[in-house]
TrEMBL record:
<feature type="binding site">
    <location>
        <position position="152"/>
    </location>
    <ligand>
        <name>S-adenosyl-L-methionine</name>
    </ligand>
</feature>
<keyword id="KW-0949">S-adenosyl-L-methionine</keyword>
<feature type="binding site">
    <location>
        <position position="87"/>
    </location>
    <ligand>
        <name>S-adenosyl-L-methionine</name>
    </ligand>
</feature>
<keyword id="KW-0808">Transferase</keyword>
<dbReference type="InterPro" id="IPR029063">
    <property type="entry name" value="SAM-dependent_MTases_sf"/>
</dbReference>
<keyword id="KW-0963">Cytoplasm</keyword>
<feature type="binding site">
    <location>
        <begin position="133"/>
        <end position="134"/>
    </location>
    <ligand>
        <name>S-adenosyl-L-methionine</name>
    </ligand>
</feature>
<dbReference type="InterPro" id="IPR003682">
    <property type="entry name" value="rRNA_ssu_MeTfrase_G"/>
</dbReference>
<comment type="similarity">
    <text>Belongs to the methyltransferase superfamily. RNA methyltransferase RsmG family.</text>
</comment>
<dbReference type="Pfam" id="PF02527">
    <property type="entry name" value="GidB"/>
</dbReference>
<feature type="binding site">
    <location>
        <position position="82"/>
    </location>
    <ligand>
        <name>S-adenosyl-L-methionine</name>
    </ligand>
</feature>
<keyword id="KW-0489">Methyltransferase</keyword>
<comment type="function">
    <text>Specifically methylates the N7 position of a guanine in 16S rRNA.</text>
</comment>
<protein>
    <recommendedName>
        <fullName>Ribosomal RNA small subunit methyltransferase G</fullName>
        <ecNumber>2.1.1.-</ecNumber>
    </recommendedName>
</protein>
<dbReference type="GO" id="GO:0070043">
    <property type="term" value="F:rRNA (guanine-N7-)-methyltransferase activity"/>
</dbReference>
<dbReference type="GO" id="GO:0005829">
    <property type="term" value="C:cytosol"/>
</dbReference>
<keyword id="KW-0698">rRNA processing</keyword>
């Protein structure tokens, strides 16, 4: 682990009031190395510069603590939908080892990468599953089984809510990571969120540490069970978002 990595990461973690042990920082550095190595042969991320990976992947993922201040102590069961290269799920697992994490992605080669990271870092109580949200959201092993669903996937909030809300237990919440101006999107998604048993409770807006990037975390509480109609069959949530 280089001094530059250690210092930048520590500085930005302090802005979130997160303190990590040396072995956790080493796990993050190893994750960074595996990410860059695998990215040479498959498209995992456009962001590979060390400083950018720290700010835009690692610290961004951990910013969830802004809306869940008991993240460091509660044993939440979390699913990360459309995890891609493992964000935010793997950083959350490294920083808060008591969490139970399920990483979900529709591309099998990404699952291979995620399993490589999990095995290399010696992470426990974390698994990577291959499938589409529209299918797994109907599977009784996953439907309404999670305390929290998170996603950094790029989709409008109505579509993303239909992908993600079926995984959340009644009493749990869905927290999407959104960027840029989101007021219009929030307004358009309100009824869709209602149809899916949810209610937008809180929106935390901030500039990502070390960048000028606008970030919003939206906390959507699930107060009611979800109709068997949702999620609709593969492709429909993105082609015809709920209104």
């Amino acid at each position: 682990m280089t001094d530059a990595f250690y210092e930048k990461f520590q500085n930005e973690l302090s802005l979130l009031s997160i303190n990590l042990e040396k072995n956790q920082l080493e796990q993050f550095y190893k994750y960074y190395e595996i990410l860059v190595e695998w990215n040479k042969v498959m498209n995992l991320t456009a962001i590979t510069e060390m400083e950018e990976v720290i700010s835009k992947h690692f610290v961004d993922s951990l910013s969830l603590i802004k809306v869940l201040n008991d993240l460091s102590t509660e044993v939440y069961n979390i699913i990360d939908v459309g995890t891609g290269a493992g964000f935010p799920g793997i950083p959350l697992k490294i920083a808060f080892p008591q969490l139970k994490i399920t990483l979900m992605d529709s591309l099998n080669k990404r699952i291979n990468f995620l399993n490589e990271v999990i095995n290399n870092l010696g992470l426990k109580d974390i698994c990577a599953i291959h499938g589409r949200a529209e299918d797994l959201g109907r599977d009784i092993k996953h439907r309404e089984q999670y305390d929290i669903c998170v996603s950094r996937a790029v989709a409008n909030l109505s579509t993303l809510s239909e992908y993600c809300m079926p995984f959340v237990k009644v009493g749990g919440c869905f927290i999407p990571y959104k960027s840029g101006k989101i007021e219009e999107e929030l307004g358009e998604a309100k009824h869709a969120v209602f149809l899916l048993g949810g209610k937008i409770e809180d929106t935390e807006r901030f500039l990502l540490p070390g960048t000028e990037a606008e970030r919003s975390l939206i906390k959507i509480n699930k107060g009611n069970g979800i109709s068997k109609k949702y999620p609709r069959k593969a492709g429909l949530p993105s082609k015809e978002p709920l209104k």
